[in-house]
Amino acid sequence: MNESPEPTTGDDREAPPANWREAAADLVSARLALIELEARDAAKNAGRKGALGGILAGAAFFTWALILAGVIPLLAAAFEVSWGWIALGLALLHAIVAGICFALIRKPVPPAFSLTRSEFQRDREWFKNL
What we know:
The chain is an all-alpha fold and 130 residues long. It contains three helices and no strands. 75% of the residues lie in helices and 0% in strands. The mean pLDDT is 85.
């Protein structure tokens, strides 16, 4: 029997920490490694979604502009008014929608990383109780 505290050659696990300071350092190291890994994945996903969002916004803008360019003369002919009045009416409608969106965007949002903060708070309490 091998009663040595050292891991065997086929065992990839590390030996348990000798004291609480090493355990705390290992815990902090593991938390930081996890944050780094998640941040890297989040940045990659955000970059991809940002690029796709930009392409989507450009395509949607041009689609909407072409629809408006086609609808303005049709509405002008249907209501027998100048196309300028139709264009001004649609511009006013868009300004109202933009104002509503601006008001909604200014509402406060919940704080970011609330789960991470709560985990760190639990870790802090754990360290105090050691």
